[in-house]
């Protein structure tokens, strides 16, 4: 098992591989919860943009552990936000995220997304 040891505060991503890509998590920093379109290195809100999991590794707890470790890297920030599809809300709630309601347009997606927040 290999964990890409990049500095998350600058590159904002983590990769877990087990002979192939298993989990990929990417985020940006935002100066305010309303400013979700671009990365702001001085931002205090971590905006998780993508959590991708190899289908063969789903429902094993690996993604939860990776997300918790990833969030742990950002304890100096105020909060972590994720825009989730409805069916993934229970997954994020198990990691401590609280649903705040429907999200406004995020990156032009047509999916209905829900804003979830983890206060740090």
TrEMBL record:
CDD domains in the cross-refs: NAT_SF
UniProtKB keywords: Acyltransferase, Transferase
Gene3D superfamilies per record: 3.40.630.30
PROSITE patterns, A to Z: GNAT
Gene Ontology MF: a single term: N-acetyltransferase activity
InterPro entries: Acyl_CoA_acyltransferase, GNAT_dom, SNAT-like
Chain ranges of the N-acetyltransferase domain: 1-120
Cross-referenced PANTHER family: SEROTONIN N-ACETYLTRANSFERASE
Protein's name in the database: N-acetyltransferase domain-containing protein
Organism: Jimgerdemannia flammicorona
